[in-house]
UniProtKB/TrEMBL annotation:
InterPro entries: AAA+_ATPase, ABC_tran_Xtn, ABC_transporter-like_ATP-bd, ABC_transporter-like_CS, ABCF_ATPase, P-loop_NTPase. Keywords: ATP-binding, Coiled coil, Nucleotide-binding, Repeat. Residues 338-365 form a coiled coil. Gene3D superfamilies: P-loop containing nucleotide triphosphate hydrolases. GO terms for molecular function: ATP binding; ATP hydrolysis activity; nucleic acid binding. Belongs to the ABC transporter superfamily. ABCF family. EF3 (TC 3.A.1.121) subfamily. This is ABC transporter domain-containing protein. Residues 84-343, 412-614 form the ABC transporter domain. CDD domains: ABCF_EF-3.
Amino acid sequence: MLQSPASCSPRCLREVADSRQHVPVHCHCRQSPQQLRGKHNLGVTLCPAPRPIQTLIVAAGKKGKGKGPDEEGRVTTTSVSSGIKLENVAITFSMQQVLKNVTWDVKTGERVGLVGVNGAGKTTQLQIITGELEPDTGDVIKARPSMRIAYLTQEFDVNPGRTVREEFLSAYDEQIKVQNRLEEVQVELENVGSDMDKMTPLLDEMEKLNNKAVDLDMSLLDSQVDKMMPELGFTPEDNDRLVASFSGGWQMRMCLGKILLQEPDLLLLDEPTNHLDLQAIEWLEGYLKSQEIPMVIVSHDREFLDQLCTKIVETDAGVSTTYKGNYTEFVAAKKEAIAQQYIAYEKQQKEINRLEEMISRLAAGTRGGRAASAKIELERLKAPGSLVEKPFEAKRRTFSFPPVERMGQEVLSIKGLTHGYRDRLLFKDATCTIEKGERVAIIGGNGAGKSTLLRLIMGEEKPVEGEVTLGEHMIKPNYYEQNQSEALDPSLTVLKTLELAAPDAELQDIKAILGRMMFSGSAMDKKAEVLSGGERARLALAKFMMTKGTLLVLDEPTNHLDIPSKEMLEEACKNFQGALIAASHDRYFLRQVATRVLEVDKGRFRDYPGATTTS
């Protein structure tokens, strides 16, 4: 347990030192005293330092590039009562304008979801908020200048060698450093005797440390951790367990707890559900819903956005648009807005055509006055701000798996499966069958054995007991591994990767498919080793979708895919005429695709008809 260091005002110590008297001197500080006697025998009565300082999680308040407080790119502290606002923000990288006109805000009690295709600038906006990036133009307006901004990323910042309690206390890094240095200075003061030349700089340092530790009370840290841990599901027995012994979901809870201990004014979350199982995702949703902290969420998990978000901000072609409600409501509202804009566009175009025809007809006759009036009305309709633009709707990317020709009715048979590793049993006498036309979702917690089951189906592992056999008639599996993008040959180009995957396909068909996957022109000649994570994921998906098979076996297929790519995969899976087995934590994907659910639980299969319906 951390103890409050015995420290007091350097003014008290100076009075003692200057008096050169070895007599008790009462401390002038405002707290109740406690006794500490140094080697120099000064009878100094010391007091504990006050309450803890809240460490800034992110120093969010940087100015724009060399600009003053009233110039473009500034950070201001007016016009919002809580949270933060981006106003007319723009930024360019390597001559490419990523953000052109971004304006949105988030207030206390609101949870904003940032959506857009990969590369739209979602994470860039988070980095502008934290001050990691500076906008070329526009303002970042904060409710107050010393806002504490927390950033929870998909890569959990934990030390596996610490105990759970040490990990939580590491949230108070600055306070602990101040405490440790105060203790060191006190020991040094005890050792200098009456040497004023050595004592003076130590007293100066102690004064600075005490100023830095205004309102610091280390004894509160333990009580704050004691309160936080059970809220996150940890028990007193977990205090001394190593962080490394916990799953990714529990490590995420530690990261979230460390952030909340620092009482942030704004919480940013970047793909927080990656690597989490369904239980951990649902816990995270419930916990975040109970918080009033304003939140900004970047996620491709549509169900997560549905459960949490109070409004959605879409970034498209560098411009932001705000919609009230969750993700599903955003999709409906956007569709309706496009439909209404198209109606207005058609109506205006019809009126423009009528006026142009009237002007052409009247100009040759004697009715010049009516023609002039029509010209004025036409100019008004075409004036900037009056002309209704034809709504742009990105063409929906579609794709289909190679057609299934002939296959038997029975696709997979599992009988009496018992399997595991060393002292860890995953399956105990598990049994099921899968037939043609079924699309089966495999669900279960992390470590339940979902990926192991898929490897058993593919013949990559042999069961300890029992049978896992494919049907006898034309059952050819096509396997999408969890880390499929990492298995790409880095030396092959994008085009060559697909040519080898589908040797019978026509070159123009392969190029058309790559175009749907947003690889065009010179991008097809890039080697896999230079592709971004999102590009590798799309290439791996294209390779999978070009491969012939009658049974699709998918392990977390939506990881690293943007929402349009997920939608394309969903449509292709629903139209596939063979059988499909998919292990995934993506509830939205499973709800769209699955006709049956197998839950792996305590070594057995729980079989549910219909799509997954997690709460």
